[in-house]
Amino acid sequence: MARKRVGILISGRGSNMASLIARAKQPDCAYEVACVISNRPDAKGLETAASQGIATAALDHKALGSREALDAAMHEALLAHGCELVACAGFMRIMTGGFIAEWAGRMVNIHPSLLPMFKGIDTHERALEAGVRVHGCSVHFVSEELDAGAIIAQGVVPVLPGDDADRLAARVLTVEHKLYPAVLDVLAQDRISMRDGRTVFADDAAATLSILQNG
Ligand code: GRF
Questions:
Q1: Is residue 149 a part of any domain in this protein?
Q2: 138 falls within a domain
Q3: Residue 16: CB within 6 Å of ligand 1?
């Protein structure tokens, strides 16, 4: 089967992006990274991607002026690179309904909490504040409501005595880096899809991903 072409959307550091690129280098991976797009021209992840020979596009949301203009530019770049799937990896702009609808079922995101808890930002601080004993990350299809799309897989970590937000974030991040490439690979194999706002798993896709749930 031809490898699916993926466009990755970032806004910053790009460590999840790097983990997706690393998986794509393995011969058995079902996807390849066609381009990396950032809404911030100074995103560190753009340099990392370029240094690995991946096409990059800096689409400055400030210069573009509106959400519609950014999304139109991203859509054009994704099509120009032949992308069939989109992976948001620390992409920090709210997207328009039109763009989300265009990529429905083909665009995923990683969020640093066990959704539906702690949607939005500052998830690690809020998990500590709430006193939860487990925390983690979720990979989900992107839908119009922020961080509310169909959940595909989740990774769980303990919250330990003495944790601060940085320590907890680092523990979650190591799981993110395993979970996200695994989910994208299974998506690229057409073993998961979105139907009526839920994730549908073909064959043993759910079992494949659940192995990773505790990191
Ligand atoms: C990650 O924690 C991801 O879950 C969230 O933003 C952070 C991005 O980090 N969406 P990086 O840019 O992938 O290093």
A1: yes
A2: yes
A3: yes
User: How many structural domains are present in the chain?
Assistant: 1
pTM for the full predicted model: 0.97
Torsion of CA 122, 22, 150, 40, to 10 degrees: 50
Contact 118, 127 (CB under 8 A): yes
Distance 14 CA to ligand 1 centre (A): 7
Query: Residue 174: CB within 6 Å of ligand 1?
Result: no
Dist CA 101 CA 24 (whole Å) = 26
Q: What is the pLDDT of residues 114-172, one digit of tens each?
A: 999 999 999 999 999 999 999 999 999 999 999 999 999 999 999 999 999 999 999 99
Distance, in Å, from the CA atom of 168 to the CA atom of 128, rounded to the nearest integer, reads 9
Ligand 1 contact via 7 beta carbon (within 6 Å): no
Rounded to the nearest angstrom, the distance between the alpha carbon of 20 and the centre of ligand 1 is 12
Q: What is the CATH number of the domain that holds 139?
A: 3.40.50.170
Identify the domain containing residue 122 by its residue range.
4-210
